[in-house]
Amino acid sequence: MSRLWPRSLLGQVMLAVAVALLVAQAISAALLFRASEERREQHLVGTLAVQVTAAANLARSELRARGTPSPASRSMRRFRVEAGDAPPSSPADRAEPRVAAALGAVLAEQGVWGAGRVRVVSHPALRDPHVQRRLSRGLPMSHDFTGPDTRMMLASVPRQDGTWLTARTLAPPRDPHAFQGLVIQTAVMFGVLLLAIWLLLRRITRPLAAMTRRVEQFARTYNADGQLEPQGPDDIRRLIAAHNAMEARIAAMLDEKDVMLGAIGHDLKTPLAALRVRIESVEDDDERRRMAAGIEDITATLDDILTLARIGRASAPPERTDLSALAASVVEEFEDMGEDVALEDGPRLVAPVHVTWAKRALRNLIANAVRYGGGAVSVAALQEGNEAVLRVTDNGPGIPAGSLSAMTEPFTRGEASRNRGTGGAGLGLTLARAIAEQHGGSLVLANRPEGGLSAELRLPLA
């Protein structure tokens, strides 16, 4: 069902309105049909009531005048009423209890004897004996009896002498054009309302779609150039204007941040470089090495912080790159340093990436595995769906399940097996995650069932 539900605002509103109109028209059609049936029933009951009442009154008048009943008088025949010892019956008869109840109530109000025992049946008009006799004699008919749905209604009322009066009349036909008119009415309503709603929604959703694209572009580039002109209704115009102002403030703050970070980096690296020169005068070799390692640690941490702050402010667009070749070049760097890192065979994967950042992210994952894995590290480039996956696996102790999500936060470090003595400041995974998200991908960490950690850099192929 969710696949049939449109995802856009325009599609959802149009579908909701169409369904609402369809339901409303269905209810309206049901009510109209019910009212039409009630009118047909009232007309039918009225016709039968007039015939039965007139026949009953005529029979009483003749009885008083002659002293004996006249069950087949010509006056009765004028009213299409016949008298008999029992109500007419045929295998094609169908009981009509609703009509019988309504007719009985009317006859009771008129004081007709036997109103509580009214019997009403119907059968196809062409099966009625009176119609068949007239047709066999070639007599003209006042109605068309050839329709398959044309039915003759027979209402029988008992008399005091034990005989029955039976009135017959054609059931009023249903209007053959009623349904057609309802369909035309529904189509016109659908066309007019849906067109009006579509035009209104397009006026709203078009600037919203443009602003969505603009937000996605700004999230990638943080560049305030090319802002949207306010358009659409006043509410949408105010929203676009507020968004443009927010973009400008964010871009200004990012520029100020870059300037500030650049100044901080310069101001810190300069005294660190001077300090690195001064420690050469320290006579104790062990002390000099410890001091130099501390300065290098501070410099590396500062580089990581500056890199993390600059992610998302690339000056050049991503370029289509063979990720398998990129992974091979990074693995080769670690092999040259004598590390046990191997690249598994895999397909050729081409994706748009910032090469320097992608290498930095993969390098951080491999370095993390080499540092904490305690053995061979395996790197694989493979495709899963519409994503390219750069997977780094090790055979180390892994990460406690409750700490996996926290390990990508800045300056977060693991347990004792990942202490500061192993180096780093807890920014490697944070950088890898930020780089993956900047490309529209993700960093996925998981403990392997056979032991060790699996770190996946997932990047979209398009």
Automatic annotation (TrEMBL):
Keyword hit for Repeat: no
Keywords on record: ATP-binding, Cell membrane, Kinase, Membrane, Nucleotide-binding, Phosphoprotein, Transferase, Transmembrane, Transmembrane helix
Catalytic activity: ATP + protein L-histidine = ADP + protein N-phospho-L-histidine
The enzyme's E.C. designation: 2.7.13.3
All residue ranges annotated as the HAMP domain in the record: 202-255
Location(s), subcellular: Cell membrane
InterPro entries tied to this protein: 2C_sensor_his_kinase (IPR050980), HAMP_dom (IPR003660), HATPase_C_sf (IPR036890), HATPase_dom (IPR003594), His_kinase_dom (IPR005467), HisK_dim/P_dom (IPR003661), HisK_dim/P_sf (IPR036097), Sig_transdc_His_kin-like_C (IPR004358)
PROSITE patterns named among the record's database cross-references: HAMP, HIS_KIN
Transmembrane segments: 182-201
Keyword Cell wall biogenesis/degradation among UniProt keywords: no
All copies of domain Histidine kinase, residue ranges: 263-462
Pfam families reported in the protein's UniProt record: HAMP, HATPase_c
Class of this enzyme: transferase
Family annotation (SMART domains): HATPase_c (SM00387), HisKA (SM00388)
CDD domains the record matches: HisKA
Bilayer disposition of the protein: Multi-pass membrane protein
Entries under PANTHER family matching the protein: SENSOR PROTEIN CREC (PTHR44936), SENSOR PROTEIN RSTB (PTHR44936:SF10)
Annotated protein name in UniProt: histidine kinase
The species this protein was found in: Tsuneonella deserti
